[in-house]
Amino acid sequence: MRKMSFFFLSFILYIQGGELEHSGMKFWEGNTFHQTTVDVSKSSEGIIRAKIDGEWQEFKIRRLPEDFIKWDFERRLETLKSIREHKSPPLSGPHNAMVASYGVRRFDTQFKINNAVKGMGFIPKPEKLPEVMELLKSTMDTTLSEKLRILERFYKKPEIFDFTKQVSLELYSTPEFETHTFLNQMANPAVSIVFLDIPCFEIKAIAQLLHPEDERLSDYERDVVEYVNLIHSYFHGKFKKRFIAVIYHIIEVYNNTPGTKQGMGRRVVPEK
Predict the structure, then answer these.
(1) What is the pTM of this model?
(2) Strand pairing report for 28-29 and 32-33
(3) Any domain includes 133
(4) How far apart are the first and last CA of the chain?
(5) For the chain, what is the mean pLDDT?
(6) Percent helix, percent strand, percent coil in the chain, to nearest 5
(7) Which member of 8, 180, 189, 212 has the lowest number of beta carbons within 10 Å of its beta carbon?
């Protein structure tokens, strides 16, 4: 009976005009939203609170391990070199992250779990953000070759980045169309992020979503939204809109490299 009800609901929603890409949860206030399942008020103390499985929990924010940072930066520099040589960049590596989430059922599925590939990257430390954003803005219209040189310079100066975070964009979610990743992260912000490569790393994180038009964002959160959109446009070209930014606060890191004593799913952050 429940199976029949699911497909009957799906059919009704379909004929009403593409209402399948939503859930029973209402997150939007007009054309914007404010995530209520993440509390960063203690982030200066290295603590983040999140509502996971309906219960508020406290987590210690961690730093990415040196092995991850070394692998990530080396792969990014290799990718920029490939582009400079007019070669197709690899699909594996630190940019294309597989983000697994769970929380709510979208109307087009019987499952709450979801997995999607997201473009992932680093963000500069708060005190470095204005300087980096000004450089990106002032060189937005320069040649590809010069942009590659600037990006290469970034990845040769790891000290400018905040290694307690990864950042991304939620490109497709709007009040009219909500991705399952968006719905899950809004309702239940615990995620697992896996990178396809050797070595292979997994990050368990708290996802904080920031809408560009949310008037309740802090000055730092506004800078994050601006930076993530800028770096995206810097490489892919200008866009007419600013997209939702996502901060993935690092909680745990695992080495999933097969066939190694240090890997095969062993936790490396925090150390045992």
Answers:
(1) 0.91
(2) antiparallel
(3) yes
(4) 48
(5) 91
(6) 30, 25, 40
(7) 8
Q: CA 128, CA 159: separation in Å to the nearest integer? A: 10
Q: Which helix (H) or strand (E) holds 70?
A: helix 66-84
Residue 161: give the domain boundaries.
22-269
Query: Reduced to 3 states, what is the DSSP secondary structure of residue 15?
Result: helix
pLDDT one-digit tens code per residue, 110-131: 999 999 999 999 999 999 999 9
How far apart, in Å, are the Cα atoms of 172 and each of 21, 96, 180? 11, 16, 10
Q: What is the pLDDT of residue 250?
A: 98
Q: Total structural domains in the chain?
A: 1
Quick check: 251 and 50 in contact, CB under 8 A?
no
Alpha carbon distance 161, 125 (integer Å): 5
Cα–Cα distance between 194 and 184 in angstroms, integer? 17
User: CATH number for the domain including 185?
Assistant: 2.30.110.10
